[in-house]
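Hi team,

As requested, here is the filled-out complex form for the C2G run. I kept the field names the same as last time so the parser does not choke. Let me know if anything looks off before we queue the next batch.

— J.
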Amino acid sequence: MKISVIVAYHDEKNYIRDCLGSLAEQSFHDFEVIMVCDGCDKPDVSDWNGLPIHFARTGGAGGVAAARNVGLDTAAGEYIFFMDADDYLAPDTLERLVEREVPGGVAYGRLQSTWYSRKVYFDNGEELDRQNGVEHKVYDGDMDNAYEYLPMRAKSLQGITILGMLISRKVVQEHSIRFSEDLHYFSDLPFLMQVLSYAEKTLSCEDGLYIKRKHNDPVNLPSLLQAKDDEKKVFEGMEAYRRAKKFIPAQDENKNQYLDYKFVKWLVTRIASFVVEAKPAKQKETVIVLQDTLKLLGNGVYPMLRHHPKKLIRYGMAGDAAGLAKKTRNHARKQTLFRICTSRAKMKRYLYEKVFSKMKMMEDTVIFESFFGKSYSDSPKYIFEYLNEKYPGKYNYMWVNAGKKLRLPYSSGQMKRFSFKYFYYMARAKYIVFNGRQPQYFIKRKGNVFLETWHGTPLKKLVFDMEDVTTASPLYKEQFYVQTRSWDYLVAPNQFSEDIFRRAFMYDGKMLETGYPRNDILYREDKKQLMRQIKSELGIPEDKKVILYAPTWRDDEFYGHAQYKFTLKLDLEQMKRELGKEYVVILRTHYFIADFLDLSQYEGFAWNLSKYDDIARLYLISDILITDYSSVFFDYANLRRPMLFFTYDLEKYRSVLRGFYMDVEEELPGPMLFETEEIIESIRRIDEVKEEYQEKYDRFCKKYCSWEDGHATEKVVHAVFGLTGQEK
Ligand code: C2G
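And here is what came back:
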């Protein structure tokens, strides 16, 4: 047996498929898998019957160190390779490492972090490019190299890891190397240093890829929810460093240098801030241990350090807790001052937090924002208009815009998102009405009323229901969690959304079961007259029927942050030829789409109204809606008009990008179509299509539109602003 792969399993049910799947698909086969279950049941591995998996268990929940030690007791391979149950390998990882096998030593591969699942990671061009772009280097034999590389590749002391290394079992056995089970966070560090000290040779091979999964759900994965300066971590870090140092000969400056450097960084970033926050007795206790620990620091590290860490070392060595805390505080202050003097953005944030938020609250001011200030639209628009019509002069209003002035029918101030003015009002206004998320650093003040209207019934999975957030920031879930804590009211368009919002946003504030204010317009009695008016405003001939094409955005097609691409798959030329006599087309792309398609060659047949403020007005004038996975169809259904679903990339969208909340084949109230021909064909026989889908349509409306009655705005305003029956 060449390799024993030891997998510590702590109930990572959602991820173990990727881990075992990647082992099952290895190009190298001479290995066994030892899966050590740590205080949990073993996972279902029936899909991998061919994989030689042996199960073992720790006695209770012993932690990763205990699990790995159990694995070492069982291992029979010439080499050992450790994995975490939520990580995975490239198909040739073991083969590449074995090619460079080092009897009596270590071959270490390359770690790559990702928050993508295996499928997305390997399907994703960007990641693959990065991987292919790397020259496959092998560094031969140099022990110093390993001492430099293995600690230095880690972001922090805690990140120093034995993952991705092919370790000769002989070394481990002969020297009885074990993981320290009393270390919860740092057990890899002394283990690695021992292995390196006894290894005859090390070798790095960059194409032995180990893919380490990052998690973006610190809220539901409590192992990641560690207090920032967790006391246990600080003391353990010092202890692990002391143990690790024993295995590097004192006279070997070079080898000591790297570990010492990591420790000093840990001192600056974690220990020092812990001391600042700690009570005097704890400060003292920490500095006594630190003083002892710093005695192990070699001289080789000093040339690598700047002034501030050197100063902290000096205070630490002198056992001066007060000095260390003072120096850390002063340094942090200087850094803040530097930041706000050198960046306008930081300066605004500083003023927002430290000055504006301390000023008196403006009790009569309401801020509105719709789609990040890009338009005057959606539920905030209708709430604004209702307040103005029914309670003129009662409030002062401020609308957020995205740099372009919004055209507003009533008097209101405007401010550019993230301008000084914006920060000023965000800090002082009592009421905030947004249809999306507020900035992460928003401070909820006592007395603030935050109305979140949101912007659609969810079809695509949201936040905490998404396993991997493929394009958003890895902090997405954490940020979302923080943001929803500030919301006082959330509007639910139907029971289905309410249930999802509660779970997927982890929202526990007040839910307004009212339907969407933005949909009231669809129930207006003067609808016909309004339709004529809108058509004439837009220059759309009154005798033509209107097809509205309103697709959503795709998570994987983007230029940059919130700048998404859109490729028109609908053949307008053909549509014009075959439907032009009776119909015109309105193209309406999602507000995230950066491309603005030039439709001038279809003048008189197709209009690009992607920049038109309010899609509800476009719903009103259209006879047929074509969409895909956009929430627009839940709203449009209120009109009971026919809908077609142009789902040309259904499989990719469903499986790789998001996943859906509903069984689309079963529930969509219209046909799913994949080619322009099919769309044209369905439009030609639209009356039949309508009839075919009548039953589904009825069921759909019952489930998703039954709360809508044209009075949502009124109900929302009454609940949030406490205005009952006082209307003009
Ligand atoms: N929208 C629009 N034009 C489009 C697509 C969407 O004006 N072509 C508007 C609609 O008001 C729609 C809203 O943006 O309801 C949200 O768009 P979605 O396509 O559903 O996508 P997303 O912004 O990701 O929101 O819970 C809802 C989800 O969060 C979806």
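Two things worth flagging: The pocket of C2G is lined by residues 378, 455-456, 458, 460, 550-552, 588-590, 615, 630-632 (CB under 6 Å). The first helix runs from residue 16 to 24.

Thanks,
J.
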